[in-house]
Amino acid sequence: LQLVEAGGGSVQPGGSLRLSCGVSGFTYEHVAVGWFRQAPGKEREGVSCIMNRGDLIIYEVSVKGRFTISRDTGKNTVYLPMNSLQPEDTGIYYCAGTPSIFCTTITTSYNYWGQGTQVTVSS
């Protein structure tokens, strides 16, 4: 699996960004794709997860209602539109993938990682 993130940037509090994750090279029937973030000085944490098939989606509590994960199967891309961004959302955002029949935001469950994209929320 190869994953490439795009769409990071700098916004003011209350602003929006849309991250994308291009996924390629997978031959597994079931793949979980997750979004994670790492703030300076903190551990990487899970944000959301979506499966390549079906409707299973997971959100971390602090982003539920503000972030919306989705996929475009034809483009092999997973999106993460982020609204009402706050300074505490600042960090490097990573997408990750793993062959799995379960969706999870547990970092150690993922085998393949993108290079990350910076999101900065500041006034």
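Next protein, fold it too.
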Amino acid sequence: QVQLVESGGGLVQAGGSLRLSCAASGRSIISRYPMGWFRQAPGKEREFVATIGWFGSMLSYAESVKGRFTISRDNAKNTVYLQMNSLKPEDAAVYYCAAGAYSSSRSGYEYWGQGTQVTVSS
């Protein structure tokens, strides 16, 4: 069982930046898993944002965030990050981290956090 806790969400103006963190709690060891970030806006399906392999050398992004968002991980700190720059109002959503796959498909992931809210004002 892997327990994931997201943090770092909040309210930011369009064009601003936020860094989300996803920490594994308890006895969870995040380094055993490829990881991903997804987001879900009200009334919409949960969608892929970014994914990272075990050691951070494999990266993949949704087209909508490419060049603005950066996923990274620090296995020593048992944490995965999502640096979000040049935020747009359409980036507003609840952001979830997930463990278990290097994939853009939700179905590949075994474990999910509870999410952190990102609000972008125009």
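About the second fold: The radius of gyration is 13 Å.
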